[in-house]
Amino acid sequence: xxxxxxxxxxxxxxxxRTAVCFxxxxxxxxxxxxxxVINKAFVERIxxxxxxxxxxxxCSYQHTGVAxxxxxxxxxxxxxxxxxxxxxxxxxxxxxxxxxxxxxxxxLFDKEAYDRMVKEYGxxxxxxxxxxxxxxxxxxxxxxxxxxxxxxITFKNRKPSLFVHxxxxxxxxxxxxxxxxxxxxxxxxxxxxxxNLGYKx
Length: 201
Description:
By secondary structure, this protein is mostly helical. It has helices spanning about 10-35, 40-55, 55-70, 75-80, 95-105, 110-120, 125-155, 160-190, 195.
């Protein structure tokens, strides 16, 4: 299992935004899988790339097993978790790079980066990539939270402020999920592309 020293710690506002985007992500990836424009191996490459940027040890453990079942080799998984992309197929590299870009921008992204992906893949597959990114971004936040709480209990975390931050965020996350779902539903009626996709203004 890859152990990351630098974990991204998301603010409460970023957590809520990521939760709203998570529901969109579920919709996007379901549509892409139904249209058979994205497969499990590609999804796992995207998710491992995002996990490497966010530094979620728990997610790296979970997705290593899923990626192996999806057909990725141990060497490719290790390379992705080390931030190396030489083993990624040429027709998938833009999607993996896009996922890393979103994680690096803390859940937002440049419209130009998305437009390039649409040009390369078509809109349906591009939305599938975005869906995979949205799902793993949200689970990374939960995984990092759980990891820090566990590390504190086992005396591995030496930063009390991190423990307090995640301890406060845990009940807030539970309370914000219904509001995030309602926000997601409301955005469907507004049909504002920037808000639905989540790119920078």
